Design the sequence.
């Protein structure tokens, strides 16, 4: 009797085990990286992602209406949407404006990894004293990290000129957040510390390694502004999505990218190392010292970080959805320096497609 009962129990256990055994699952899709030196780029369809095809045309109509030139959506590195408007094409370059600040932040991280500089060191260690017109004791408070985080304490109301005479004291470094073009001094720090021109170091350490072919820095209104095609901007967004790694090559240290895309100081929670951050409880905007409560772009995913440039140049990176979204063009509504009402409405229309 005991033997029969034992056999029954074993039989039951094996039967239950077969019901709970893991079922085969589809392997997770690997992130795709377009080849270096090639225009070939893998694509996928709206239908394959289960997105809402009926909302695509309203999105495209809105983009065209708002003076867009180039628009790209990547999912896991593959192109889902690529559209050009208002006489623009895939081969024409356009300026990044302040979205290019993130290029400067990225190359600064590469130079630090290679031992040329330390972001915690003061700027005058690399440029010498007198790079501002403020008292030496105050100038020596300003570190590379203060330039990365917009907390130099220098006067942001004096325009784009970053000559010493125009870099004047308002507050001690680290005590005030203000959107200021003094960040470009990081390019001088990289050049001085590496012994190379900024463009040469940028090209060899970043541009060429991810295939941003033919992009270049152009002097505009006294500032060095990056120009490239929309696809090249998308390549950089893909590098950011993958935490600084391109295929098997860790171009930018991952811990640096993590810090760059996280709150960098306690004044403007929505700012990293020249990256804007969504999903925080408050934010500051250029040209004001006001704090605004709420998230930067409410209709966008909370984990999104973005590069925002004058006249609505946009790189949106959304890790939770494996998305990179690029918008290049003329200003949508009125002159702006970073965030605009356009971001919110655009994301309402993007969300209607992807949700």
Sequence:
């Amino acid at each position: 009797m005991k033997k029969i009962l034992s056999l029954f129990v074993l039989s039951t256990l094996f039967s239950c085990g077969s019901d709970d055994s893991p079922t085969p699952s589809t392997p997770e899709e690997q992130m795709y990286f377009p080849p270096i030196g090639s225009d070939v780029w893998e694509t996928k369809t709206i239908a394959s992602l289960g997105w809402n095809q009926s909302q695509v045309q309203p999105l495209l109509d809105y983009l065209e209406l708002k003076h867009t030139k180039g628009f790209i959506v990547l999912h896991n590195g593959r192109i889902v949407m690529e559209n050009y408007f208002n006489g623009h094409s895939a081969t024409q370059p356009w300026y990044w404006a302040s979205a290019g600040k993130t290029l400067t932040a990225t190359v600064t991280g590469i130079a630090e990894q290679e031992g040329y500089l330390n972001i915690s060191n003061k700027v005058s260690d690399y440029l010498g004293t007198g790079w501002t017109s403020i008292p030496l004791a105050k100038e020596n408070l300003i570190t590379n990290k203060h330039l990365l985080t917009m907390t130099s304490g220098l006067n942001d109301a004096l325009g784009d000129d970053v000559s010493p005479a125009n870099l004047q004291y308002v507050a001690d470094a680290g005590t005030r957040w203000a959107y200021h073009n003094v960040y470009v001094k990081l390019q001088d720090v990289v050049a001085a510390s590496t012994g190379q021109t900024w463009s040469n170091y940028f090209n060899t350490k970043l541009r060429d390694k991810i295939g941003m072919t033919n992009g270049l820095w152009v002097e505009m209104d006294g500032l060095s502004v990056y120009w490239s095609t929309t696809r090249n901007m998308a390549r950089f967004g893909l590098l950011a999505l993958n935490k600084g790694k391109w295929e098997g090559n860790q171009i930018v240290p991952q811990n640096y990218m993590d810090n760059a895309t996280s709150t960098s100081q306690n004044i403007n929670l929505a700012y990293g190392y020249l990256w804007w951050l969504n999903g925080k409880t408050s934010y500051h905007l250029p040209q004001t010292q006001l704090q605004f409560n709420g998230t930067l772009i409410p209709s966008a995913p909370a984990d999104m970080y973005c590069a925002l440039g004058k006249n609505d140049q946009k790189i949106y990176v959304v890790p939770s959805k494996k998305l990179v979204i690029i918008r290049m063009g003329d200003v949508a509504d009125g002159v702006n320096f970073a965030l605009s009402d356009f971001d919110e409405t655009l994301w309402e229309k993007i969300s209607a497609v992807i949700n």
